[in-house]
Amino acid sequence: MIVSLAGETIKVAFTHRPRWRLFLGHLLNIGVRSQAIVGIAGGFTGMVFAVQTFYQFHKVRLDSATGAVVAVAMAMELGPVLAALMVAGRVGAAVTAELGTMKVTEQIDALRSLGVHPVDYLVVPRFLAMMIALPLLTAEAIWLGIMGGYVLTVHMMGAEPSYYMANMILYTRARDILHGLIKSFFFGFLLIFIACHKGMQTEAGSEGVGRSTNQAVVVSCIAVLISDFFLTLLLTKLLA
Amino acid sequence: MIQVRGLKKRLRSQQVLNGLDIDLPDGHTVVIIGQSGTGKSVFLKHLIGLMRPDAGSIHVDGERVDPLREREWAPVRRKFGMLFQGAALFDSMRVFENVAFPLRERGGLTVEQIRERVMHALSLVDLDGSEDKYPAELSGGMRKRVGLARAIVGEPKYLLYDEPTTGLDPVTADTINELILRLRDSLRVTSIAVTHDMASAFKIGDRIVMLYGGKNYFEGTIEETKATDDPIVRQFITGQAEGPLTAKNRR
Description:
heterodimer; A: mainly alpha; 86% helix; B: alpha/beta; six-stranded mixed β-sheet; four-stranded antiparallel β-sheet; 10 strands; 24% strand
C-alpha cells in the first residue's frame, strides 16, 4: 500500500542515518538534470500566458496589469503544476522503470537477502531528494515564467516597463509564492511515492515494467491536477 | 540446522506448498528437485524470509523465524548467502561494488579490509581481474560467479542456490558445480540447492529431496535416489516423457 510505504519512508528518514552518497546522486538527477526541461516549460508558458493576457487587457487599456496577472498565475498555479508534470514525466517514469526492473530481475530480493531494507536504500534517498529538488525547480519555473512574460510584453509588445513592474510588485504578494511552494512540496510527495510504489509492485517481466511506468506517469499527472484543485481551495482559505 | 514443518503457501489459485516438512542438517549439501512449478524456489525464498508462509513453521538454529517482521530478519539473513537464478547483480554497480555491498552495509570493516575480502571472494570464484567490469559486460557463467562471490563474501553459515546451472552451457554448468563443491570444502558451509538439472544434483548434493504435490515426496542419499524404484522419482531423475508425473498432469 502506498500509504504504508509513505509512512515507513518518513519514519526511516527521521530515525536512520542518512545515506549521503545516494541522496546527493538523486538530488543531482532529480534536481540539476531536470532544470532545463522545467526552465523551458516555465519560460515558454510565461511568455504564452503574457501574450494572451496582454491582447485581452489591451482591449480595455489594462496593458500594465499583464505583469501582475502573469506573476500571480505563475506563482500560484502554473509554476508548481508545470514543474510537477515535467518531473513526473522525466523523473517519475525513470524511477518506476528502474525499480520495476530491479523487482523483476530479483535485485530487490537480493537487497533484502543481504539484510538491506529496500525502503531504506531505494525510497528514502529519493524521497528526500525530491522534497528538496521540486520546490527549487518550481521556484525556477516561476522565475523564468515571470521573466519570459516581462521580456515579451515589454520588449516585443511595447508595454510600459515601469508600470508593468510597479503593478506586478503591487499585486504579487509573498503568500502567493508561498502558496505555490507549499503545493510543490505536496506534489513532490505524491510523485515520489506513486513512482516508487508502482516500481516496487511491478510483476510480469519487461511488459510489467512498461505497464508500471505508464501507470506511474498517468496516475501522477492526474493526481497532481486533482490535488491542485483541492489544495487551491484549502490554501486560498488558509493564506487569505 | 534448519527445520521446516507443515509449510503451506498458495500463490493465486495454486497451492504451491502443501504441508512441507524438511530437515536441513548442518554441514550437508541438500539438493531440492522437482518439476517446474512445484515450489522449489518458493521454498528457498521462505528460508530467507523473502516470502511469508500461509501456515507452518521455520526454525533456523533453533530460532523460529517465520513470524519475524521484515526489519527483524536482518540478523537472520546474515547467516545466509543466496545465489539467485539470474544472479540478481546490481546492474548500476561494478563487480567490485557488487561483492563489497554486503560488507559496506554491515559496517565495521576498513576500506582495506573490505578490499581484501572482496578480492579473496573473487579469487575463490576464479574472477581475479574482473572487479572493474559492469554486470552487462559479463557472460551468464561469470554473472553467476559474481553472484556467488557476493553470497560468500559475508562468510555465511548457509548458502542457498536457486537453479545454479540453469541457462548455462554444459561446460560452464559443470564449472559452477565444481565451484560449489570447492566452496563447500573450503568454507564448510551448509548448502541448499534447488535445481532440475539431475547431473548437477548428483554431483553437488549429498542428500536429495524431491518435492511433489507441495510436499516432501522423497528424501535420500544420492545412492538411494539412484536406486529407488518409486515410479515418480524414477521418471523425474531419468527424464522420461511417459510416466506417472505426466499422466497425472494430463488428467
